[in-house]
Design a protein that fits this description.
The chain has 9 helices and 5 strands. It starts with a strand and ends in a 6-residue tail after the last helix. With 191 residues, it is an alpha/beta fold. A 5-stranded parallel β-sheet has the order 2-3-1-4-5, with helices on both faces. The chain binds adenosine-5'-diphosphate. Adenosine-5'-diphosphate binds at residues 7, 29-30, 33, 50-51, 54-57, 62, 83-84, 86, 90, 133, 142.
Length: 191
């Protein structure tokens, strides 16, 4: 499963819950990249610079960081990729990796909410000592980047018949319930 959502939509929360619900791994691209950045070194510093600006980390770097976790998850029941892909070339890479591992991408869950709602949530998180990329300017940039670069994946997965769009401007429990209701209608194996 893929989890496609703008900053602040609740990808992390929903990703954790869905992984527990379906017995698969939750692989969050942003978390793995932050861990790599924290580790330092030239690659870590490069990643940290992109993340602090709210820019996308180069495709090959992201793929290299994610691949071991994806390979391992594929051998242990499957995965929910949270925050990957974020552009069309990553979508192609995700499809190729899945094919190579004998995994079928069953759903692309798209969580949507108005930018104003997302901005308030992220600023709230920042005020509680959240992430360094939760500043007003970087938030605006991340939301614009989502609209321009990741947004086109919505029609891409709609055409492939696996898009599940859910309103994220509700309580976390209501969002989870909506996602599960929609997924159960897809008649997926293992659900
Ligand atoms: P958010 O969705 O709120 O921006 P994430 O933790 O998913 O939070 O991502 C944080 C940052 O990590 C992004 O702004 C970007 O710099 C980097 N990142 C995460 N996923 C990707 C990806 N698939 N491709 C490139 N960069 C990514």
């Amino acid at each position: 499963m893929l989890l496609l959502a703008p900053p602040g939509a609740g990808k992390g929360t929903q990703g954790e819950r869905l992984a527990a619900r379906y017995g698969v791994r939750h692989i969050a691209a942003g978390d793995l990249l932050r861990a790599e950045a924290k580790g330092g070194g030239p690659l870590g510093e490069e990643i940290a610079a992109y993340q602090s600006r709210g820019d996308l980390v180069p495709d090959q770097v992201v793929l290299d960081v994610l691949t071991p976790a994806v390979v391992d998850a594929a051998a242990h029941g499957g995965y929910i990729l949270d925050g990957y892909p974020r552009n069309l070339s990553q979508a192609h890479a995700a499809a190729e990796l899945a094919a190579r591992l004998g995994v079928t991408l069953q759903a692309a869950v798209y969580l949507y909410a108005p930018d104003a709602v997302l901005t308030v949530r992220l600023l709230e998180r920042a005020s509680q000592g959240g992430r360094t990329d939760d500043t007003a300017d970087v938030i605006r940039h991340r939301l614009e980047l989502f609209a321009e670069t990741t947004g086109p994946l919505v029609p891409y997965y709609t055409e492939r018949g696996i898009l599940v769009a859910v309103n994220a401007d509700q309580s976390p429990d209501a969002v989870t319930a909506d996602i599960e209701a929609r997924l159960s209608k897809l008649s997926l194996p293992h659900t």
